[in-house]
Design a protein that fits this description.
Blueprint (H helix, E strand, L loop, with lengths): L2 H9 L8 E4 L14 H11 L5 E6 L4 H10 E9 L11 H6 L3 E4 L4 H13 L11 E4 L3 H9 L6 E4 L1
Helix pairs in contact: 2-3
Amino acid sequence: MNQANHHAAVSAKVGPGKAVAVVGDGAFGETDVVSKRGDRAVECVRKLTGGNGAYSVLECVGHGQAMQTAIQITRPGGAIGRVGVPQDETMPASQPAFYKNITVSGGPAPVRAYIEELLPDVLEGRIEPGRVFDGVIGLNEVPEGYRAMNDRESIKVMVKP
């Protein structure tokens, strides 16, 4: 997990016993992967959570559809941690979020605030940040890497010069 995803998890109030969903390429030790988008993704997540939705949702994309999906899959009283850079000036589905009492927070990860907490886990091997990469590409293959992530053929690709 990278520091942005960690910040999203903190913002979304992730904790023991809480169902968590990640919208986007935020690999997070998943038990189930939903490769669908839009209404089909919402339907799948609802089924996986017994119809309730997830308590904590990490929105790691920033596009309007991703935020709308995040709100639709969050259970009433749940929380969304938003680290995807917003592509719009307004938040889609703000009224449904309001009426479902969903907390929406997040922003750029305050990296220095997490170093003392996360670095010992990385150095002692309890967290393996490289596990999120499932592909390696060269610098000239960056467009192909983005295509593979978009088409759900890869979670995250590492660019090696």
